[in-house]
Amino acid sequence: MATKARATGPGSGVTGYFLRDTPVEVGMRRLLITAVVAGLVYSVLGTAGRGGCAGGFSAQGGFVDANGIPTDSAPACVMMNLSPSILVYVSLVAVVSVALHRVSTRGLSERDAARLVRRARFAVIALVVVAIVVAHAAFWLTPLPNAESFAVHPLLPPFPFGSMDVTVTPLQGQ
Prior knowledge:
The chain is an alpha+beta fold. It contains three helices and eight strands. The chain has a three-stranded antiparallel beta sheet with strand order 3-7-8.
């Protein structure tokens, strides 16, 4: 519950409402901030892309296939993209919600509540680190698919830690 307090320090003529600074409330704020920052970090570091073409252009302006043999049709290009999974964000919200619910509804001592919030912060950080590492490992260990057969065989699927999209297009202009 908020209490009315007089601000102290520079400009102390201002009054306002401040949260009590109990260790549990400080821990809950840190948990929320950690979850938001972890979600932003996952959004940035949970993305990747790579691609390639099975062929290219000849010196005469035509197309060549992967073996360098001239062909009339444009060779296929494959683009793989890794993007964050919505399930990681749902898991972050679940960890924070469960921790805040348990702290607010159970008759935990201040020490036990502070420990629960610290463990939830650790769980949030661990979830994001594991999600980034597993998603990138799966993405970079998956070979680019063969554009002619569309065969994609991931060694380790990134789901639920990431989402992988494969796009096949013809080679574009010169």
